[in-house]
Each structure stands twice: as C-alpha cells, then as structure tokens.
C-alpha cells in the first residue's frame, strides 16, 4: 500500500489495539478504498481491505471498478456482496476461467480470506500478519489437494 501510513500514524497512541489517524484529504483508487477512509480514518487496515479487493480480482477476473456495471454496483466489492445475497447465487459462476483449474476447496478458502479482508469495520478486519498466516495455510492445503487430484487422475 502507498498511503503514507508510517508518517501518518507512526507516533499516534493505539486505540483498541489499532493505530489510526485522521485525514481530510482522500487520495487513492476508488475500487480499493476501505469505507473508513471516506470518513478520514487512516489505519493499516486500509491495506488489508485493498488486498481483499485484489483477491476478488484474482478469483473473478473482474476489475475493481467498472463503470459499465450498474452504477450502484460499479465497484467489485459491492457487486459481489449484492450477488452473494441472491438466493440463486453460486460462487462458481464468478470464477475466472483464465485462472486455470484449481481445487474448489482452495477457491472457497481464498474467497473466505477475501471476505475477511473486506470486513466493513476496520476494528474487526484482520491485519496483514493474520492474512499472511491464512495464505500460508491455504498454500499447504492447496498443495495437498493438487497432489490428491493428480493421484486420482493417474488412476483413471
């Protein structure tokens, strides 16, 4: 992330275990900006939110912001949140076909990690250190799943 957080909150006291600062100047790419940033609140959790958007982009192949989508759903986060509320929603409908063939459990786990990154309240959003651990676990799980799938394919 490039929000200048080190300068902005480097010497601020922690509030609820989270260092934060205030700003009146909003700068950034709208598809990646966390809700609290629009209120002028700056925390390191802004980067967690933006990373969640990147994960959604990887999963779906859709851009973070698309003015061609209905204006209400032009940002990817709102679009996916709206789709997941529909009764007929199937996450696999939104899998990027160009991403290759990967185990569905890995896909759903990565989507779950993205959702955690995109938690609306920055107090409830995990830090990148926690996300890193989750991605490491996913990497190990995915390796095991790929190995199991390859064994099954060789037997058939």
Automatic annotation (TrEMBL):
InterPro entries: Kinase-like_dom_sf (IPR011009), Prot_kinase_dom (IPR000719)
Pfam family, one: Pkinase
This protein's GO CC annotations: membrane
Subcellular location per the Swiss-Prot or TrEMBL entry: Membrane
Keywords assigned by UniProt, alphabetized: Membrane
SUPFAM superfamilies hit by this protein: Protein kinase-like (PK-like)
Name of the protein described by the UniProt record: Protein kinase domain-containing protein
Organism from which the protein derives: Amphimedon queenslandica
Source species taxonomy: Eukaryota, Metazoa, Porifera, Demospongiae, Heteroscleromorpha
